[in-house]
């Protein structure tokens, strides 16, 4: 038997946004979503309408990176052109010093915009409403709590200096410097309530900046001239002292070569050092040749002749060639003549003579190499001895040379520095009276015609959009925390069970008895269609193994399980033999619904053995009904008895379907016992009412006893509202309240 395990089903991908569900949520809260932005927009518009219009005066300034010196000589305050330089000038335009100059020039301390005594109080003062100090003063606690800050003193309580500083700070807050992209142009903007003053202030800032730059450059030039004059005297004296020290050293050490610091003794040592280097090189060459013949000194002259250094000798090479020629001649003649032939004897004598000359020359070359090596060693040793004997003299010469170079560098450094300052002083003096500004005014500020603040439409629109987003967020947040079940989507997502169907909400007030027998009366076509849908779901879910015993329960009382039991029994009774049992022995309702006599036997009586099933069963609306009967003292024990189980088995042989109305799961344990004997269990949920955690807890209790859950049936569903919000439960949405059967022409008897 298939069993559905309840759980908290989640979408396959949590990152996927269900647009349909989002739209349904927004439509459900549409009036709140619409009302909040409209209300906010209205309030914001009323508020911004009370604000004072602000005008913006703009002057345009060209700031030149190259300061364009008239005489073509670089200025003293040279600064590398670039982004950093321009950024520095922008900050200077917003500096306090420049703002103070404009405030003084325009006498802004007496301007109504900066003088609170000349200002009218605002119609709506948000700052006052949000200022806690004002509330403390209003309730009279300012005597006990000091809430007045120095910047909050009234104008008549401030000194002139404090008033001036307050105006300067306020004015700086109204100044904006906007550089134009990819240019050296900058717009100086001043925002004020008085358009004329705004234009004058922007122009005054531009002109004041130029004046301050000219004055600053003139001051820097004068300061640099004075400093360089004092520095020139110091440098001149330093140069003279270094020259005197160099001259005194030359005379003291008897230096005759001013370029290389060379004395007579130093020249000799230099020559000795050069000879020592040459001797080392000569010894290296001689040693190289000697090493080649060292291994063949005791060998024959013929082996010595094979050494490369010997063979490279020209005479040896020539004698080798003569010997080879003579030997070739002997070999040739030996083919024709005998050894005693005169021609042969003459050729042999020539060969012997050539060999003897070669032997003598090889021995002479070997002896020459040995002699040259010995002489090179002796020469090097002699020079080393001479050099060692004069080492102290060499060190003294080197010391003199280092000292001379040090004094010479000092003189050159002082002379270069002195000449640099001299030229710089001449340039600065020449340009002292010829200073130009690094900026010029491109456009003077004109009196603005229209206000730039407040932008009523933009502020209102932004406020409305933000309020709309906020209201949407609140709606989504409210929906997120709403733990009730509204439709099939909630059933599957939140409960993890299929939805068998629903029972529509009855708009007209009806008695419980009427609702329980509404299917039989056929007064509500939509309700009847809903019951048929549930009937179809129950039948289809048990095609292979029909559900013989069906238990209907819920989480709490009042969720419509009794109405489903009676109406589903009537619907199934049209096709099968059906028995409806009232197993809710705590609060039975069948007597009132089906008009049973108070003394009529019921399920409790039959299970206890006090009556037969025939005595307790009565037919209604095409089905058999067995009410509770006499209330037992302990219903749970009665339902757990073997007699009750045997009763169900007996009744199952007599009926096609047995539908049991069980108590709520959260109230008692009776439905858990009944679920163990059921073929399937239908769980009733009241739409938009029962909390999901409570439903899950009930489903978990059923799962603990392995109850075969078929699915969920929603009760009290507002079909019109659900269809409006896009739930679409699959019936009546296309064909109206008349339903599927009326569309195809079936009568009530044929359904």
Strand percentage lies at: 5-15%
* Largest sheet geometry: 8 strands, mixed
Silhouette? flat
Give me the secondary-structure category: alpha/beta
Number of domains: 5
**Topology, number of strands:** 12
CATH architecture label name of the largest domain: 3-Layer(aba) Sandwich
Q: Strand order of the main beta sheet, please?
A: 5-12-11-6-10-7-9-8
Mean pLDDT reading: 77
- Tally of separate helices: 29
User: Ranges with pLDDT <50 over ≥5 residues?
Assistant: 8-13, 68-80, 726-751
Distance between the termini: 29 Å
Helix content: 55-70%
Which CATH C-level class of the largest domain is it?
Alpha Beta
Question: Using only CA atoms, what is the Rg?
Answer: 60 Å
The CATH topology of the largest domain comes to Rossmann fold
Fourth-level CATH superfamily of the largest domain: P-loop containing nucleotide triphosphate hydrolases
Catalytic activity: L-tyrosyl-[protein] + ATP = O-phospho-L-tyrosyl-[protein] + ADP + H(+)
Main location: membrane
Membrane topology: Multi-pass membrane protein
Pfam families: AAA_31, GNVR, Wzz
How do the helices and strands line up, and which of them pair or pack?
Elements lengths: L18 H10 L1 H20 L5 E9 L19 H11 L2 H11 L19 H5 L1 H7 L21 H13 L2 E5 L5 E8 L2 H59 L10 H31 L6 H4 L3 H4 L2 H20 L8 H48 L1 H41 L7 E5 L12 H26 L6 H8 L3 E6 L7 H5 L1 H4 L3 H16 L8 E6 L6 H13 L4 E5 L7 H5 L8 H5 L5 H4 E4 L2 E4 L8 H5 L2 H13 L2 E5 L8 H7 L3 E7 L5 H13 L4 E9 L1 H6 L14 H6 L7
Parallel strand pairs: 5-12, 6-10, 6-11, 7-9, 7-10, 11-12
Antiparallel strand pairs: 1-3, 1-4, 2-3, 8-9
